[in-house]
Design a protein that fits this description.
The radius of gyration is 21 Å and the shape is globular. The longest helix is centred in the C-terminal third of the chain and has 15 residues, at 103-117. The chain contains 6 helices and 3 strands, in the order E-H-H-E-H-E-H-H-H. The chain has a domain at 18-120: K Homology domain, type 1 (Ribosomal Protein S8, Chain: A, domain 1), CATH 3.30.1370. It has a 3-stranded antiparallel beta sheet, with helices on one face. Helix content is 38%, strand content 14%. By secondary structure, the protein is an alpha+beta fold. Helix 2 packs antiparallel against helix 4 (103-117). The protein has helices spanning 37-42, 47-56, 71-77, 103-117, 127-140, 142-151; strands spanning 18-26, 59-63, 91-99. Residues 19-98 form the K Homology domain. This is K Homology domain-containing protein. One of its GO terms (biological process) is regulation of mRNA splicing, via spliceosome. GO terms for molecular function: mRNA binding. It comes from Panicum virgatum (Blackwell switchgrass).
Length: 163
């Protein structure tokens, strides 16, 4: 009787060595001081960053000045053990703990995706932000309301609550 191998036949055989690597990516806050990089990276309820992590098997951490939403709390935490990063410029730390043969590929995939997310784009041409706003509307339940109203021939500004 034939028993297929337990691993995916498309993936290379694993050496079994699990390696942990980290990579730092600077965020160009000095070049674009008015751009909300943290909001763009996180997306609605953190889903954009979660998607990057799920697609690459890497963990992405936002670190440095501006990484804590509450500026007063950030100031309070600065200098405490574990918060030394708050003395550095805003940056990302990408971590992976994967088989040696794929870890570099996954880290580079994460870097490429994050690089694209960190490029400020004119709002009228920002597909990524439109996608995030659509996600937010769906999460809040307002996307369904808008499509339901339009399909009923009602104004999108019709202000009744849908049960």
């Amino acid at each position: 009787m034939f028993h297929p191998p337990s691993r995916n036949w498309l993936s290379p055989p694993s050496s079994g060595f699990i390696v942990k690597k980290t990579m730092r990516m600077d965020i160009p806050v000095d070049k674009y001081p008015n751009f909300n990089f943290v909001g763009r990276l996180l997306g609605p309820r953190g889903n954009s960053l979660k998607r990057v992590e799920a697609n690459t098997d890497c963990r992405v951490l936002i670190r440095g000045r501006g990484s804590i939403k509450d500026a007063a709390k950030e100031e309070l935490m600065r200098g405490k053990p574990g918060y030394e990063h708050l003395n550095e410029a805003l940056h990302l730390v990408i971590e992976a703990e994967l088989p040696a043969e794929i870890i570099d590929i996954r880290l580079m995939q994460a870097r490429e995706i994050l690089d694209d997310m960190l490029k400020p784009v004119d709002e009228s041409m920002d597909f990524f932000k439109k996608q995030q706003l659509g996600q937010l509307a769906m999460l809040n339940g307002t996307l369904i309301e808008m499509t339901a109203r339009r399909s009923l021939g009602q104004s999108p500004h019709f202000a009744t609550a849908w049960a």
